[in-house]
Specification:
Blueprint: H1 5-9, H2 12-30, H3 37-46, H4 49-52, H5 55-68, H6 77-88, H7 93-103, H8 112-119, H9 131-150, H10 153-165, H11 173-183
Amino acid sequence: MKDDIHQILAKPALKEGLKKYQYIMQAVQDTDVRTDAEFQKIFRDFYQMRRFYSDDFARQYFILMQQLKDAGPDMTFRMALERVKHIQGTYEMSFSSKLAHTINPLLPIWDNVVTKSHFGIRAPYAGAKDKEKACCRKYAEFEDAFYDYMATDEGMQIIHAFDEAFPDSGISDVKKIDFVLWQDR
């Protein structure tokens, strides 16, 4: 860790992000995400979707999320990746993992800040042969490294400190680690 865990947990951005994330994770179960403008606005803001993707991509993404949300713990990164690819014909590792995580919060989120900076794992290069398999292999490598990290003393310290700072947050240990690692840069 570059920064002290307690300093990271005290950051206003983390506290604000936690509120948005808690809303997303509750609302995804309670609403039709295809039509809920408030859910879409908060999701797009939290995950910075507006910056990189068109409104048409977002519309189709939320339709897909609504279709897949009943998968629950059976949701996989591969399921999300295959379906998100059909929106615009590209392999979107980050937003595929965000979709998968929103449905199954035990799946870590692929984000360059975390994957590259903390685990040294990069997405497959653009011209990779059999890109879907390459993406799934990289995600599996990241998932293994992430879970291994969670089991370390430092990973357990993060979870414990997060629980002390935000008792009864109701979020998965995976996301607790993600919040802290994402802020540690």
